[in-house]
Amino acid sequence: MRPNPMITRGFLFAGAFNVIGVLVFSKFFTNSLLSSLDPTVMSRAGLGAILLWGLAYASVSRCYRSVPYLVLVFCLEKLYYTAAWLIWLSKKGDTLPALFSESPLTAMFYSMYGAGDFAFALFFLWVAVNTLRNPEIARTAG
Q: How many CB atoms lie within 10 A of CB 101?
């Protein structure tokens, strides 16, 4: 059974969200302000990990039916980053107006990244649950 082209595009879009997002907002890993505002999650190593997660999403874009538990891991990973974003907003969200003056690109990133992560968490959950509910599809995939 062939993969659903819309779902395949969803995985590719999730990958692009991470890969292109990291490269643009980190200015190819040169935006020290981005990392300094959340040195635990958005360090260079953290940004590299986010980029790798994006490549992982894209890598299963055509075989997601064969790996529903991995897709659930993707969901959990996205929920982790959503929680990190919410914690950051609760602690430092009041700095966003000044940040928009100093670095609009960085402020835009911190204003929205978790919302995108949450949307992709829901997407990954939906794909995994639907694949697991229909084991015949999962068995014939690939």
A: 8
- Torsion over CA: 29, 32, 38, 44 (sign): positive
The pLDDT confidence band at residue 142, using thresholds 50, 70 and 90, is very low
Whether the predicted pLDDT of 141 surpasses 50: no
pLDDT in tens, 47-73: 999 999 999 999 999 999 999 999 999
- Rounded Cα gap, residues 80 and 131, in angstroms: 22
Distance, CA of 20 to CA of 32 (rounded, Å): 17
* Rounded-to-integer distance, Cα 131 and Cα 69, Å: 10
Show the domain range for 60: 5-140
∠ CA 108-113-115 to the nearest 5 degrees? Answer: 115
Task: State the pLDDT at residue 136.
Answer: 63
Threshold 0.85, pTM exceeds:
yes
**Structurally, how many domains does the chain consist of?**
1
**Cα–Cα distance for residue pair 119/125, rounded to 1 Å:** 10
